[in-house]
TrEMBL record:
<dbReference type="Pfam" id="PF09351">
    <property type="entry name" value="DUF1993"/>
</dbReference>
<dbReference type="InterPro" id="IPR034660">
    <property type="entry name" value="DinB/YfiT-like"/>
</dbReference>
<dbReference type="InterPro" id="IPR018531">
    <property type="entry name" value="DUF1993"/>
</dbReference>
<protein>
    <recommendedName>
        <fullName>DUF1993 domain-containing protein</fullName>
    </recommendedName>
</protein>
Length: 176
């Protein structure tokens, strides 16, 4: 069975890098189309949802929030704010750096530690493993995927390879 470290830190770092790669694609798309980066960052899937900028920040935030209850060193990572693509890159890099400093011994064996957290206006209590696997990781991926969907909706040429880094398709490939 995988240990707590293996199912969290490498996964979060991998997908933070993928999220960072999406921002490179946003900057390239803006430059190629003569669109303002600020306008792209302000896009959302609907009027009652956060914009792209906020989706990226929330995903980045969940990468730290996922382990902060059991990794005291992560308490030093401040909540992220950013207004530009350059600043978003910096916030992601800070989180990758903080997670990269964790060692397996820092969190393995802490799966049963009690975590008290808020989700919107609800407060809940659970163990650290359940918090990670049933709350923090799903929320990280929800906001990452929402950012991805906003970019697809804006016609930024991204696909599964940009999401997971595993897939590869020939140029111009389409499923439909």
């Amino acid at each position: 069975m995988a240990d707590f470290y293996s199912i969290s830190v490498p996964v979060l770092i991998r997908y933070l890098r993928q999220l960072d790669g999406l921002l490179v694609r946003v900057a390239d798309f803006a430059a190629a189309r003569g669109v303002s980066e600020a306008d792209l960052l302000a896009l959302s899937l609907s009027t009652d949802m956060f914009d792209l900028r906020r989706q990226v920040l929330i995903a980045a935030g969940f990468s730290i929030r996922a382990l902060r209850p059991i990794a005291p060193a992560l308490a030093a990572v401040p909540n992220a704010e950013a207004a530009t693509i350059v600043e978003l890159h910096a916030r992601i890099a800070e989180r990758i750096d903080a997670l990269s400093r964790l060692e397996p011994g820092d969190i393995n064996g802490k799966e049963a530690v009690r975590v008290i957290e808020t989700a919107g206006e609800a407060e809940f209590e659970t163990d650290a493993l359940t918090f990670l696997t049933q709350y923090a990781l799903p929320n990280f991926f929800f906001h990452f995927m929402t950012a991805f969907a906003i970019l697809r909706q804006a016609s930024v040429l991204i696909g599964k390879a940009d999401f997971d880094g595993f897939h590869a398709y020939p140029p111009g490939f389409r499923f439909v």
